[in-house]
Amino acid sequence: MNTEILTQNQETPIEKKKTIFSGVQPSGNLTIGNYLGAIKNWTDLQDKYNCIYCVVDMHAITVRQVPAELRRRTYETLAVYIAAGLDPEKNTLFVQSHVPAHAVLAWDLNCFTMFGELNRMTQFKDKSAKNADNINAGLFTYPVLMAADILLYQTDLVPVGQDQRQHLELARDIAVRFNNTFSDTFIVPEAYIQKTGMKIMSLAEPTKKMSKSDANPNASVAILDSKDDIIRKFKRAVTDSDTVVRYAEGKDGINNLMSIYSCFTGKDYSEIEREFDGKGYGDFKLAVGETVADSLAPIREKFDALMKDKKYLEEVMRSGADAAQRIAAKTVSKVHRKLGYVGL
Ligand code: TYM
Questions:
Q1: Helix (H/G/I), strand (E/B), else coil: 275
Q2: Is 125 marked active-site?
Q3: Is 209 known to be catalytic?
């Protein structure tokens, strides 16, 4: 892959750390889907990789936001990153709009992305169906901004949930197209998607993805929900008319609860089936609710403390943006030279 070997001296070759980039939109209350599909996995990567995690506020405005809420959620999303275990000393944590290079590169890459490619994006189709009165150009070119996010940092791996796979494929195609038109400019990134947790489903409609923008409050569990709310939502989770806890085709609700339980406990499906052998769905749902609530309790506590210290969060934002800006500027200047812009 893209590993560069640096030699410090003859005996000890040092492998350059690979770069990881990912982000979450501050467009709603972060769910356990965001946690299990993305943030939880990020915390496992921080020692081994050069990790850059962004709060993608510019993506969020493709759907109309209330400005005061967007601002609050931007702080909150950063606080969740840190509360979930991302150490600002080990990771670059920043807010997208603080680094204008994202918008600059997105424009350049727009000119290397085909209308037909964007028109095939399933998320665009879903979101334009949901926001029929505001199908703006930003919603359409959203994946190009996402490609810019990733390519700016010469990213090797992008840890995301399954729903972002198509966007990532497009980012790769754009990178390859640019590299082939000029010469090697971008590292071609790869998706890093965990098998369990990559697609957490709605508790109300288990054939649909759990989403932070779902209007039904019982469909999703927020990372910051209270213990009582979490238990209540799992108790009400839609399942099926069978009574045996087992992972099987057609049991979407139970399969979803089993994958959530598996992510939080580390137990595989056969262990879970044994654990609930002879017990009903009621016992299982309660166990899932309690496990999720107890696992998230320390995050909630740390989050509350962080939100009382806005100054600290702003310091993290500022130093993260400085670090990100330095890397991003190098890529932008390389791209601009290749495009033929006059450099001063
Ligand atoms: P967003 O904000 O919708 O979601 C953030 C992350 O959470 C994952 N995710 C899920 N994983 C499992 N089950 C679910 N139900 C679930 N819902 C969400 C998403 O896959 C994602 O990893 N376009 C991105 C944000 C973005 C980005 C980027 C990501 C912008 N630029 C560059 C990676 C790299 C988005 O809308 O994520």
A1: helix
A2: no
A3: yes
Residue with the smallest CA separation from ligand 1 atom 22 is 160
Percent of the chain at pLDDT > 90 equals 92
- What is the overall mean pLDDT for the chain? 94
Q: What is the pLDDT of residue 130?
A: 87
Model confidence pLDDT, tens digit, residues 241-282: 999 999 999 999 999 999 999 999 999 999 999 999 999 999
Distance from the alpha carbon of residue 23 to the mean position of ligand 1, in angstroms: 7
CA dihedral 200, 213, 149, 180 (to 10 degrees): 70
Ligand 1 atom 34, closest CA: 22
Residue corresponding to tokens 């962080």: 306
- pTM of the predicted model, to two decimals? 0.94
Judge contact between 171 and 150, C-beta under 8 A. Answer: yes
**Distance of alpha carbon 178 from alpha carbon 113, whole angstroms:** 10
Look at ligand 1, atom 37, and give the residue with the nearest C-alpha: 24
| Span from the CA of 227 to the centroid of ligand 1 (angstroms) | 25
pLDDT at 6 over 50: no
Best residue among 102, 124, 158, 160 to mutate for probing ligand 1's pocket (most ligand atoms within 8 Å of CB) is 160
Q: How many beta carbons lie within 10 A of that of residue 319, not counting itself? A: 15
Task: Indicate if the alpha-carbon torsion angle 66, 77, 171, 324 is positive or negative.
Answer: positive
Rounded CA-CA distance 6/12 in Å is: 9
Confidence of residue 204 (pLDDT cuts 50, 70, 90): very high
Using CB distances shorter than 6 Å, the residues near ligand 1 are 21-25, 33-34, 36-38, 56, 59, 146, 149-150, 158, 160-161, 163-164, 167, 198-200, 209-210
Q: Output the six-digit token pair for 289.
A: 């609710």
CA nearest 85: which of 39, 49, 48, 51? 39
| Residue 227 reports pLDDT greater than 60 | yes
Any catalytic annotation for residue 212? yes
